[in-house]
Write a structure and sequence with these properties.
- It is built from eight helices and no strands.
- By secondary structure, it is an all-alpha fold.
- Helix 7 packs antiparallel against helix 8.
- It starts with a helix and ends in a 14-residue tail after the last helix.
Amino acid sequence: MLEAQEILHENKSLGFDDIAVLYRTHRQADILETCLKKEGIPYIVSGRDDYLMEPAVRGTICFFQSLLQPENLPAEQTAKKLLWNGQLPLLYETMAEKYLPLLKKKKAVKILEEWSTDLQLENKKSIQKLCRMAVFYPAMAEVRCGK
């Protein structure tokens, strides 16, 4: 604790970017997340992968993998199934035309924020977590589901 006090004393201009909170259990994470949100303190959750199994998140990641790897037909099929219930193939094509050029121009977080708005997923907690996680990755090619 003394070390933290010395750092604070020497560096009075610390911001939220200089702070990390570590915890051991998901229960603690939920409490911390609730408190930070309530106080309006910006935060990023790293290391909690349970939201990655949500259909909207898996479908989103598969969609962008299918754009980055056109030969990856299982990713395309999974995206269509999870996001559009296997229907509306033209919607997949329309979204692909829109987002393919953005993959080289925008950061991952900006792409995902726009995506969540386009698909009206912005209020889904799992997609919000995906967007917060994406700040760690400069490009969509680096955003992966699992290992």
